[in-house]
Amino acid sequence: MAITLKKLDPYRWLIPKTGSMRVPGLIFSNDELIKDVQEDQSLTQVANVATLPGIVGYSLAMPDIHRGYGFPIGGVAAFDLDEGIISPGGVGYDINCGCRLLTTRLRADEIRPMIKDLVSALFKNIPCGAGSTSNIHLSKKEEEQVAVQGAVWAVKKGFGSTEDLERIEDYGTMEGADPSLLSERAIKRGKDQLGTLGSGNHFLEIQVIDHIYDQETARTFNLSEGRITVFLHTGSRGFGHQICDDFLKQMSMSISDGKEQFVLPDRQLACAYLKSDQGRHYLAAMACAANYAWANRQVLMHWTEETFLKTLLISPKDLGMNLLYDVCHNIAKKEVHNVEGSKATLCVHRKGATRSLPPGHPLLSPIYRDSGQPVLIPGDMGTYSYVLAGAEGAMSQSFGSTCHGAGRVLSRTKALKKAKGRAINRELEDKGIYVLSRGKRTLKEEIPEAYKDISQIVDVVHKSGLANKVARLKSLGVIKG
Amino acid sequence: MMSNKPDFNIIDHTADLGIKVRGADLKDLFEKAARSMIYIMIRGNPVGKTRRLKLSVTGEDLAGLMVRWLGEVLYLFEGENEVLTKVRVESISSTHLDSTLETVPYKPELHEILCEIKAVTYHQSEVKKKTTTGRPVSFLIYR
After folding, report:
1. Is residue B3 part of a domain?
2. Which of A55, A206, A248, B9 could disulfide-link to B20, CB 3.0 to 4.6 Å?
3. Per-residue pLDDT band at A382 (split at 50, 70, 90)
4. Does A241 contact B78 at a Cβ distance shorter than 8 Å?
């Protein structure tokens, strides 16, 4: 399908409604980034999502859009609860893949001489890599508690404190989780993977705050230049993958059996009506995975703090490690939004997109009621990550959403070719970044050139009013799976 | 686990991984597809107690059958910690196959994971007869 793009202004491109599209597509980008987008199939995927029943407003894409499977990565779509659908492919396999940022009282000049010790200790204490398991082995009953309670379960077990919960999207627990809907396979895959980082683009990174854009918000977020932060990126592991797989199979079978009448341009867009049993069951199972992911990041944060304390031989007070925020970027949620002047509850799919709530939003905890929600945007290993604050423009333009990261521009095959013969860890070390990775190919697949320019992506969301820049973080040390 | 490289091509995809496999017939195609996926994922010696199992899979059509088949082979590793060493498709139709598999237990000290595959997706999944002697298939695996 040939896709027509119409530039609306320097940061917005429209895909006009044609053929079976029910709404137009809208892409947030700039002249440079849009060139890459036009070279992969992600614009077709934006148009495909626009054909799904009950979609409201636009099929949206953030500036880090790239080709996914079914939905594009960086896609946002909201659906009417009565007429609309829910699609596991619109959430992704890694349900509640997300980020968490920890602030500390440490200064970069104190940490630089210790960075190799710290990274090595984290690499030892944080299970990472494909197929990794932790020393937490959940009984079925415990796993069901994790699936219902999320981060609250982890706090009850001594991982972190109740204060952390105020600083997690949805307070670390998604309501409506029903573990009775989970397959034996999902339970089996989840029992040994709580407290693991995983592989691929998941990471734990020690960073220094190297630039502040908004002093007032930075003070609220406890961010100041030269201080050390720790950035965590992981999700619901095999537990979430299995839940996605199980429901995609069910929905696909219902469509092929003729039980559901959908005309889908891509089978990976398999879906169910939100008001159907299948749709409600998926939402309740997805919530289990969302909760598992929040518990996972809560456990990993606790082990990170323990590792810092033991390696640096300092007191918890001197370390001052606190959670800034935890956001998910693969999720579907029922949220209230303005639709043509009226409030409406919609099911917002964010696949590779982050929630961005502005100051005063009722879903924000009181800590961030005046500043807006912290938005955490990881970059690639060699450049920067960013902290932004949710902005009003997100509510009026993107169902309270913004970008989620740099977005790949090279396939893994092309990245491997580009990295052939290069010692990537040495190249990064020359830039002052010490990296340890479990998989031999991971570093090469994740070279900085494989990603879009994160600064441009953040610039687009800032200038479009989807989120406001607060601080920039530079990598000092990384562990990867 | 496959020490000799099966005959397949990687399809370039920004975030994920796709493969194209050709087979002399449907049985050969489905066997090669399973071997190719395992070859991409893991290397090592087929050491350990061999487990032999029968696996039957049903799909809505040939492409759906391929997605389910590879999903089951993937689950053997992800869910059961078993590494595929031999695969034989005993019978196949457009919606069902019966197979006999041999696996060994996954041991991190013996097996190297080259690539974590999270799921086999329907995206771009296709099984079609291209010539009188060959059946190519392309499908996408999510990483």
Report:
1. no
2. B9
3. confident
4. yes
